[in-house]
Amino acid sequence: MKVDLNKFKNRTVNVCGRTLYRESSILVPLVERADGYSLLFEVRSENLTQQPSEICFPGGRIENLEENVKAAVRETSEELLIPGNTIEVSGELDTLVTPFSTLIYPFIGILHNYKDTYNTDEVKEIFYVPVSYLMEAEPLCHYIDIEMKPGEDFPYEMIQEGRNYPWAKGRYPVYFYTYGDRIIWGITARITYNFIEVLKHL
Fold first, then answer.
1. Which DSSP category does 14 fall into?
2. What homologous superfamily does CATH list for 20-136+187-201?
3. Is the pTM of this model over 0.90?
4. Alpha carbon distance 32, 92 (integer Å)
5. What's the CA gap between 192 and 183, in Å, rounded?
6. What is the DSSP string of 41-68?
7. Distance between alpha carbon 28 and the CA centroid of its chain, in Å?
């Protein structure tokens, strides 16, 4: 069989096994205030079934055939009750691949003429953290150990050493920022950290 390797020259690189992941887009919202730009954070409604009362950025699942950036704008518009055309998307951060089968595409956006509105069905409250504070803050970083755990129907007979196979282990970093009585942690803190690191090195 002949193989045309020229097909690989202009191929767009993707995430291997992408269809196996849940995909979400989020927006890291910047709002210009008296002391300069701040990041806007949401506190999720207590009535939500998933992660109630946790701190997050606006965002959510990407709908079928929807562009990643449009999903981030749509979700932000719905959660903050603002027109999509008041959101100025400035760029994209690094894609986050989680060990629990989720791909997250973070975008940076400026909210123009924002009046602190939000959808109370999804958001309990909002708060701001100055970018200048985050540039100086050193987040805590702790690690979660990740181990491979094959299912009972795994074909151990097809691999060397069978059930005694020495599976690789991993470490997943979990960041923590504190601001007053707020604790920003988990994926939200990791995306915040990525934003600050990119900003520092631009």
1. -
2. Nucleoside Triphosphate Pyrophosphohydrolase (3.90.79.10)
3. yes
4. 19
5. 13
6. EEEE-TT-SSSTT-EE-SEEEPPTT--H
7. 9
Q: What is the DSSP string of 135-196?
A: HH---EEEEEEEE----TT--GGGSTTGGG----EEEEEEEEEEETTEEEEHHHHHHHHHHH
Q: Are strands 22-33 and 182-185 parallel, antiparallel or unpaired?
A: unpaired
CA distance linking residue 5 with residue 115, whole number of Å:
54
* H helix and E strand count, the chain: 3, 11
Maximum pairwise Cα distance, the chain: 66
Secondary structure (3-state) at 108? strand
Give the tens place of pLDDT for each residue, 53-104: 999 999 999 999 999 999 999 999 999 999 999 999 999 999 999 998 999 9
Q: Which residues pair with 183 in a beta bridge?
A: 178
Q: Which residue has the tokens 């939500």?
A: 48
